[in-house]
């Protein structure tokens, strides 16, 4: 894996973290316990910071970035991801805040200052435009993403199941 400092700050990895050797992590990034970062993920904590909660998985080819502080927004837009989040293949997350138990479908884009509450599914290929808030308990789809319907009990249960499956898989990778 490639872990690089930016301005003297290195990513911090908690116990049980798996980072694929083809991924690149730069700068002010903190990965909590049992996070998994899969092949070809790029995460740049250079102009702001990235925080990823326990048991979250970021799948192949995803890009994680943020926005720098500016005159109009002195704190900029960091990237904050909660616990038990599944970030599908080739997802772009940019300066947004994600709660817990979320699934982001393949190829989705979530832009600056978006807030995604807990227990949400964002459909594959969806575009969540800047500043939008996604309410807890719903499926969102489309470009721009719109609330499609409430999640059913099986879908809500799958959110933690998906995260647990990836914890098990990363443990197998770590064991060799």
UniProtKB/TrEMBL annotation:
It comes from the Bacteria. It holds the Pfam family Hexapep. This is Carbonic anhydrase.
């Amino acid at each position: 894996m490639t872990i690089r400092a930016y301005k003297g700050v290195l990513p911090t990895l908690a116990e049980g973290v798996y980072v694929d050797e083809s991924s690149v992590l730069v700068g002010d990034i903190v990965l909590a316990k049992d996070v998994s970062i899969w092949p070809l993920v790029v995460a740049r904590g250079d102009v702001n910071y990235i925080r990823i909660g326990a048991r979250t998985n970021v799948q192949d080819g995803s890009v994680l970035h943020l926005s720098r502080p500016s005159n109009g927004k002195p704190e900029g837009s960091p990237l904050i991801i909660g616990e038990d989040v599944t970030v599908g293949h080739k997802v772009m997350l940019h300066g947004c805040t994600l709660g817990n138990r979320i699934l982001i479908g393949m190829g989705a884009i979530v832009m600056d200052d978006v807030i995604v509450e807990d227990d949400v599914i964002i459909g594959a290929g969806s575009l969540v435009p800047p500043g939008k808030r996604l309410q807890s308990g719903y499926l969102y789809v489309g470009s721009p993403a719109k609330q499609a319907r409430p999640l059913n009990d099986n879908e809500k249960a799958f959110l933690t199941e998906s995260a647990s499956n990836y914890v098990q898989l990363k443990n197998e990778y770590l064991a060799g």
